[in-house]
Structures are given as structure tokens and as C-alpha cells.
């Protein structure tokens, strides 16, 4: 196409130039012809002799000009002065052009810039009869007229070229299309390279290729086909039955039928033949045949299949062994994977300390942890047996050296027979004839021995089997050691967790308690609960949850539980206690050494409640914990709308205390999120199921606990679960005595008398003296250093509690008085006489209390509900 376009452009240029040349020549010839004709016209010389030649010549010249088709005819004298011109105002002016040649009698043509523009003109002489030049005549055309003629011819030229170009384009496209179809779009270089590659690949492949035509001639045979069929060098082009190949092969090629993986014998070779008819013209015109030697392929395929089975076994072992962090289950998974794909029976013997998560030592006894086989009536040691292998056995040698041992024939293994002659004889008689003992070795520690036994397959284990057994056991050993390490850490964490949780709940009379704790299956967390007796027969109820699992979470839980005990001894309100606990968690984060998982304490949640059996008020606050549930005596269960507060450790936000007045017999249910939150259900669904399980009247805490666990306890908990159910009790009026004290020191004696009378009524006369002394000192301090009003309250519970209330927030301090001091001994006496004493603050002031142990013969009803 590029060549055609260039040729067309060249032709167009040549035609344009030639056309313009021809037109220029034609213009000159016409100018000469017109000028000569006019110069020889009749009457021209007579007109020249007239007084006014222009009057005669101008009309004649214009008429002739128009008839001749030229742009001007000019008649001039021998000096070049015009007698005529298409522009009359130029008559009488000098002619523009060269007149000398014409004055000499010559015809002269030229191109000049005349009055009409660029002009092509001819100048001829006018001769007198005597032969003299008497005048000159010039005729011509302007270049514009000449160009117009050429331009009028140009469309014809362009149309001709376009037609030729179109014909060339169509012809080129048709030829290119046919060539592309025949060469499949390949160029000459690609065709050459394709044929080179075709020949190199055809003769390099390890598969014979034959092509025959419809007349049974061999058109093509590659080198491999010639080798397999012993073909001569000149076989191509000859009939198939004349090239010396096996008769059955020749018959198959001549038949032209379809053959798929048909096996034929050719000498000492076993050939696999595939044949398909070729249809280059839409009808069968020959066959294409491929031949491969299955003699070598059979061996290769057997080896490949064996390798594939072994790789598949190792691949499945990687996915099926170690699915849990349980030592026994990992051993069972190893035995299940190997039977029957590698061995007929598999036994796994682990050093006994491994089952407890400990690292085994040399010479440890083996515990048969897993047994699996194609039959169950085998005479091998049963599951759970504790085996002491003799040093002569392959198991003992493998455990000691860490190297696997192969016993091809158990009948010829005296060291193994010495272990238990009766049992080993029964094993051989059973048909078990070969053994591989592979030690479970991980991170330099041998955990046990895996025994692979063969009975059904007659061939013994070989070195390849030994390598496979080592690879299989090596992969399982890592999972086994991980499970052992997890077992050890889990046992440590569980032991630590349970040691930090309350072993026996303290005695108190405010609530009846049922509790439950279960660690997570995959790791102990930091959930805890607690029941803390408080002064004034009150009780503190605590449930908390430390984020994370493992030893760190358990240790953090123990620190927080201790802190709650310490803070509760200060008799702090729930919101203030949580605020101090929040500060403690922040300090624990800042003091972390980076050894804790994920960088230290991530946070914790806690709910703290204080129940007073006298007023039946329950003050609660929570730090990001689940809300408590309150079960009324009639079974109505509500979820408390206690403000959540931020989790411990975040800081910056205050906690809020909410007070509830609980009827006697109400149940307060505290729990951690592991009870209601699970992967298979939404937390809202868990809360509703918990509420439903608790909504039954007349239950004691134990019955409520069983109902909750039946409804919500998962079989494999993913998080710790802590549950605390407290049923409220009250101290009735018969066990509480209280008086208002006038703000006058003289009233102290009257208060002592009232207290003595009340103790006599309760049968506690033995405590009258000490109680009078305690009240005397506490009331005197309240009146002297405190503020009105002052109240006194006696509580008879498991102890006798004396409480003095006043409106001052100033707390007394115990100190030692000097020998000559008149005061300072009151609180010292109170501390010596009472079992415990202390101060707690209220919104109205403070309470100073002192507890005394009841006499051994005191009323038994002291611990019973009123």
C-alpha cells in the first residue's frame, strides 16, 4: 500500500508538470498563431497609414481577440507604442516586452509581467511589400488563464489516480487475505521459525509421530517413531506395508480406524498407540498416529504413584495432626493418619511425664497413649499400659539415641523378643513381621516412640519407608511438643488461677451464695469472683474479668483481687473503690516489663456491690462489666440499668454508684461475659436465655446456678466463666438496737445503761462491761471532736458490732499516750478490747465501729436469718 501511494503521488506530480508544460507550449503556439494571423490580415497596413490607426485597429483587434480565445492582441509601431489594447487607457503607451528580435524579422515568445499580470506573449513583425518591418503585433494569454486550464484538467487526473489506487487497494487486500489464510497470519520469518521449531520439536519429543495419506503411504515419521518401529532412513514416501514394521502395527495404520491407548507388542517393547483420521479437505485423507513406549513409563508411573502417595500422606498429616493442643489427641491423630496408608498397626508410646506437660528425662517409662490398626484383636500392648522397654529393644535404643530403627524381620530380632517373649511370639504368630521404631524428637527432646507395624503386606519395611516414617514422625513431634508445652502452661495457669480464687467463702449472714468457675478450654483467663465480709454485717460482692489468657492473666487477676480486698478494708463506696482500682491498673501497665503477652495488661472489667442486710440497700458500680440481674422473690428477673463506666485501665472517666433496695429473698446475679457470649450466638440472645433461666420463684441459689449452667454452659468454652448468685437476707429489728444521743457529755452514762439492758435482753451479759467501755469512749470522742447529730447502733450477728455515727468527717487516729498525758488512751483501749475496729464514711459524716466476738455459749440463732 505504501508503494502504491508513492507511485500515485509521483504519477500525479508528473501528470501535473506535464500538463502544465503542454498547456504552456500550447499557449505560446496559440499566441504565435494568432499574432501571425493578425499581422497578415487584410487591411492592417492600410490602417497603419491612416492618421488615426487606433480608431481602426482597436475594434478589429478586440473582435479578433475574442474570436481567437486569447487575452490580448496589441498592435504597435516600431518604437513599441501601442495602437490597440484590451485596456483602452493603455493605448499610446509603450509596450511591455522585448521587441528587438521582432524588429529584426524574428518571431519572439516570452513571459513577462504585463499590465494584465503575468503574461505569455508572442511578438511577430508586420512586413511591408518591400520587406521592411513597419509594425509589430503581440498576442498572448495570462498565466492565470493558463493555470485555469490546467486546474480544470486536474480533477480528471485525480479521479484517474483514485481509481487506480482503489483498484490497487482492493487487489492488495484480496491477495493479503488469501496469504494470511494460507499462512495463518504468519510472515516469512515466522513461517521459517515455525518450521524450524516444528522440526526440532518433532524429532526431540520422546513420543513417536507418524502421518499417513489416504493411499497408505508414510508421509512423516519422527526420530522416536523410527527408533521404536526400527524404520529405515528412506521410509517416508513409501507404502506402510513395505517399510519393515511389525505386521499388527502396519494393519492398524492401513485400517485408518480410531485407536485410543491401544497396546501392541513390537519386538521386546510394549507400545501404546493412538490413531486419529486427518481431514484436511473435509474428508478422511490419512491418519495421524502417536506412539509411546510404556515399558519405561510403567516403571516411572509406579515410582511417581509411590511418591504421590507419600507426599499425599505427609500433606494430610500436616493438616490432620495437631488440630488440638492436647497430647493424647495428637497421638491419636498420628495413629489414624498412618493406618492403613503406611502401616497396618501404629502404636504411640510417650514418656509418662509428657502427659502431664513435663519434659521427660532419660530412662523414663513409656505410656501407650494411642493404638490404631486394621483389626482390633491384635496382641500388642493395650492402650494405657506403662511399658519399661529393655535396652535391647529398638524402642529403647531409639528413645536413647533419637534415631529411628528398622527391623525388617521380627522373627530375627532377639533383642526385641527379650522384652516379653510370650507377647512377642504372639505378635509374630499373628502375622506382624516388620517394625519401624521412630522416636518423637522435637527441639532436641525425645518425647516418646512411634511404632509402625506391618502384617498384611508381605514385603518388609525398607529404607524408603524408614525415611518416610522419620519425616512423618518429625512433623508430628512438633505438634506433640507444642501440646506438651501448652499442657504444662495450662496446668500452671489453672493451678495459679484456682489458688488465687477463693477456696472457701467466708462466713457472713448477709447473703446465701452459690458460685461457679470454669476456665476456658484453650487457656485460663483472668475471671474471678469474691465475697468480702464488711463491718456492720454488710457484704461486698465482686466479679471481674482480666483481658487475655494464660499465666499473665491469672497473675494479674490475683493482683486485682488482692487490691479489691485491700480497698474494701478501707470501707470505700463502690465508685471510689473502682476509681482506685483503675489507677492501679494504669500503674501496672506503665510498670510492665514487656514480657507479658501483647505488651502487658490490656485492661480489665469489674463489678463491685455492697449489700447492707439492715437497710436492705445494695450499692453497685461497674467498670465496663456485664450488668447484674436481680431476681425478685416472685421470680421476676430484671437486668439492672447500672451505668457501665469505662473498663479498668483507661482512666479519665468517673464511675457512678447506683443504689437498689432489695426485698428479702431477692437474688443478685453477677457473671462474666464467657457465660452469655459465644461464637454461635449473639450476646443479646445469651442475656435473654440467662434471664429466662433465672425467672422462677422459690429457688435457692444452688438451684438457680444449676438452671443457668444447664441453659448456657457450652461444652467447650472459649472463655472463662465465673458466676456468683447471692440471695439476700436481713437482720430483723430483734437483732438491731439504735438510739439518738443528745449532744451532751452527760448523756454518755445513759447510753451505757441502755446498751447494758439491750445486751441483757440478748443474753450477752458477758460483753456488757467491754461494750459499755467501748461505747463510752466512742460517744465521748463523737461529742468532743465530732458534730451533731450522734447515733448509736448495736448489731447482734456473728459478732457484736457497736457503731457510733456523727456528722463530722474527721477520723480519729490510734496513738500511744505518754505517761503524764491525760488523754489519748481511749482508742487504744477500744482496739485492745474489740476484735476489730475502724471508720467508714457516709454522705452525712462518718461511723466508728468496733466488733467483739460473741461468747462461745452465745445463742445459736446468731447465724440464722431473722
Automatic annotation (TrEMBL):
Residues 196-262 form the PAS domain. It comes from Streptomyces litmocidini. This is SpoIIE family protein phosphatase. It is a multi-pass membrane protein. It is found in: Cell membrane. Residues 508-728 form the PPM-type phosphatase domain. Pfam families: GAF (PF01590), HATPase_c_2 (PF13581), sCache_3_2 (PF17203), SpoIIE (PF07228). Residues 316-490 form the GAF domain. InterPro entries: Bact_Sigma-Reg, GAF, GAF-like_dom_sf, HATPase_C_sf, HATPase_dom, PAS, PAS-like_dom_sf, PPM-type-like_dom_sf. Gene3D superfamilies: 3.30.450.40, Histidine kinase-like ATPase, C-terminal domain, PAS domain, PPM-type phosphatase domain. SMART domains: GAF (SM00065), PAS (SM00091), PP2C_SIG (SM00331). The chain crosses the membrane at residues 154-175. Keywords: ATP-binding, Cell membrane, Hydrolase, Kinase, Membrane, Nucleotide-binding, Phosphoprotein, Transferase, Transmembrane, Transmembrane helix, Two-component regulatory system.
Amino acid at each position: 500500500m505504501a508503494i502504491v501511494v508513492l507511485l500515485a503521488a509521483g504519477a500525479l506530480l508528473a501528470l501535473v508538470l506535464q500538463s502544465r508544460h503542454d498547456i504552456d507550449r500550447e499557449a505560446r503556439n496559440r499566441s504565435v498563431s494568432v499574432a501571425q494571423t493578425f499581422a497578415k490580415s487584410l487591411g492592417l497596413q492600410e490602417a497603419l497609414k491612416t492618421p488615426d490607426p487606433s480608431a481602426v485597429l482597436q475594434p478589429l483587434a478586440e473582435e479578433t481577440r475574442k474570436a481567437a480565445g486569447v487575452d490580448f492582441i496589441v498592435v504597435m509601431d516600431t518604437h513599441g507604442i501601442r495602437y490597440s489594447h484590451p485596456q483602452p487607457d493603455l493605448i499610446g503607451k509603450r509596450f511591455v516586452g522585448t521587441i528587438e528580435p521582432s524588429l529584426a524579422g524574428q518571431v519572439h515568445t516570452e513571459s513577462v509581467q504585463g499590465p494584465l499580470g503575468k503574461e505569455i506573449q508572442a511578438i511577430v513583425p508586420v512586413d511591408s511589400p518591400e520587406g521592411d518591418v513597419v509594425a509589430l503585433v503581440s498576442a498572448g494569454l495570462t498565466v492565470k488563464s493558463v493555470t485555469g486550464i490546467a486546474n480544470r484538467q486536474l480533477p480528471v487526473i485525480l479521479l484517474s489516480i483514485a481509481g487506480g489506487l482503489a483498484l490497487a487497494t482492493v487487489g492488495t487486500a484480496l491477495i493479503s487475505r488469501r496469504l494470511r489464510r494460507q499462512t495463518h497470519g504468519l510472515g516469512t520469518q515466522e513461517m521459517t521459525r515455525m518450521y524450524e521449531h516444528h522440526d526440532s520439536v518433532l524429532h526431540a519429543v520422546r513420543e513417536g509421530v507418524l502421518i499417513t495419506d489416504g493411499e497408505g503411504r508414510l508421509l512423516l515419521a519422527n526420530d522416536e517413531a523410527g527408533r521404536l518401529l526400527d524404520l529405515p532412513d528412506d521410509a517416508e514416501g513409501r507404502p506402510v506395508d513395505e517399510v519393515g514394521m511389525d505386521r499388527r502395527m502396519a494393519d492398524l495404520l492401513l485400517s485408518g480406524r480410531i485407536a485410543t491407548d491401544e497396546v501392541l507388542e513390537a519386538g521386546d517393547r510394549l507400545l501404546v498407540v493412538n490413531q486419529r483420521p486427518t481431514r484436511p479437505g473435509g474428508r478422511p485423507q490419512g491418519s495421524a498416529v502417536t506412539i509411546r513406549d510404556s515399558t519405561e513409563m510403567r516403571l516411572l508411573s509406579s515410582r511417581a504413584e509411590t511418591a504421590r502417595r507419600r507426599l499425599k500422606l505427609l500433606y494430610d498429616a500436616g493438616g490432620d495432626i495437631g488440630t488440638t493442643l492436647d497430647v493424647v489427641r495428637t497421638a491419636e491423630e498420628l495413629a489414624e493418619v498412618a493406618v492403613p496408608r503406611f502401616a497396618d498397626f501404629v502404636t504411640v508410646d510417650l514418656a509418662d511425664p509428657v502427659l502431664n506437660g513435663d519434659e521427660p528425662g532419660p530412662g523414663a517409662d513409656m505410656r501407650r497413649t494411642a493404638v490404631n490398626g486394621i483389626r482390633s484383636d491384635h496382641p500388642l500392648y493395650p492402650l494405657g499400659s506403662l511399658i519399661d522397654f529393655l535396652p535391647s529393644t529398638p524402642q529403647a535404643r531409639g528413645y536413647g539415641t533419637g534415631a529411628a530403627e528398622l527391623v525388617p524381620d521380627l522373627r530375627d530380632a532377639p533383642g526385641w523378643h527379650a522384652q516379653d517373649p510370650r507377647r512377642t511370639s504372639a505378635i509374630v504368630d499373628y502375622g506382624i513381621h516388620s517394625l519401624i521404631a521412630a522416636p518423637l524428637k522435637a527441639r532436641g527432646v525425645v518425647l516418646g516412640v512411634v511404632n509402625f507395624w506391618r502384617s498384611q503386606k508381605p514385603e518388609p519395611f525398607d529404607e524408603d519407608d524408614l525415611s518416610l516414617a522419620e519425616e512423618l514422625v518429625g512433623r508430628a513431634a512438633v505438634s506433640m511438643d507444642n501440646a506438651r508445652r501448652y499442657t504444662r502452661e495450662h496446668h500452671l495457669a489453672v493451678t495459679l488461677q484456682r489458688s488465687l480464687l477463693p477456696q472457701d467463702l467466708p462466713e457472713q449472714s448477709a447473703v446465701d451464695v452459690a458460685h461457679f468457675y470454669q476456665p476456658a478450654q484453650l487457656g485460663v483467663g483472668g475471671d474471678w469472683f469474691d465475697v468480702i465480709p464488711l463491718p456492720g454485717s454488710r457484704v461486698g460482692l465482686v466479679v471481674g474479668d482480666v483481658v487475655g489468657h494464660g499465666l499473665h492473666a491469672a497473675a494479674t487477676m490475683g493482683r486485682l483481687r488482692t487490691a479489691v480486698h485491700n480497698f474494701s478494708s478501707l470501707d470505700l463506696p463502690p465508685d471510689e473503690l473502682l476509681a482506685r482500682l483503675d489507677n492501679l491498673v494504669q500503674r501496672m501497665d506503665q510498670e510492665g516489663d514487656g514480657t507479658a503477652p501483647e505488651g502487658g495488661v490490656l485492661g480489665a472489667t469489674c463489678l463491685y456491690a455492697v449489700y447492707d442486710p439492715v437497710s436492705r440497700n445494695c450499692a453497685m458500680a461497674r467498670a465496663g462489666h456485664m450488668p447484674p440481674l436481680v431476681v425478685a422473690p416472685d421470680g421476676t428477673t430484671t437486668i439492672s440499668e447500672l451505668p457501665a463506666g469505662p473498663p479498668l485501665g483507661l482512666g479519665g472517666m468517673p464511675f457512678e454508684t447506683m443504689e437498689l433496695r432489695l426485698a428479702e429473698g431477692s437474688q443478685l446475679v453477677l457473671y462474666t461475659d464467657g457465660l452469655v457470649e459465644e461464637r454461635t450466638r449473639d450476646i443479646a440472645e445469651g442475656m435473654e436465655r440467662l434471664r429466662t433461666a433465672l425467672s422462677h420463684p422459690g429457688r435457692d441459689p444452688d438451684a438457680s446456678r444449676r438452671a443457668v449452667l444447664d441453659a448456657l454452659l457450652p461444652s467447650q468454652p472459649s472463655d472463662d466463666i465465673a458466676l456468683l448468685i447471692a440471695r439476700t437476707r436481713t437482720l430483723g429489728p430483734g437483732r438491731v438496737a439504735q438510739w439518738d444521743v443528745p449532744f451532751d457529755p452527760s448523756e454518755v452514762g445513759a447510753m451505757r445503761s441502755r446498751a447494758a439492758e439491750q445486751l441483757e435482753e440478748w443474753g450477752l451479759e458477758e460483753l456488757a462491761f467491754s461494750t459499755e467501755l467501748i461505747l463510752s469512749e466512742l460517744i465521748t470522742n463523737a461529742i468532743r471532736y465530732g458534730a451533731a447529730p450522734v447515733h448509736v447502733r448495736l448489731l447482734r450477728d456473728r459478732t457484736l458490732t457497736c457503731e457510733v455515727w456523727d456528722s463530722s468527717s474527721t477520723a480519729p487516729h490510734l496513738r500511744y499516750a505518754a505517761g503524764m498525758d491525760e488523754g489519748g488512751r481511749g482508742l487504744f483501749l477500744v482496739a485492745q478490747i474489740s476484735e476489730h475496729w475502724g471508720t467508714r464514711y457516709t454522705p452525712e459524716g462518718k461511723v466508728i465501729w468496733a466488733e467483739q466476738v460473741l461468747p462461745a455459749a452465745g445463742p445459736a440463732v446468731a447465724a440464722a436469718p431473722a
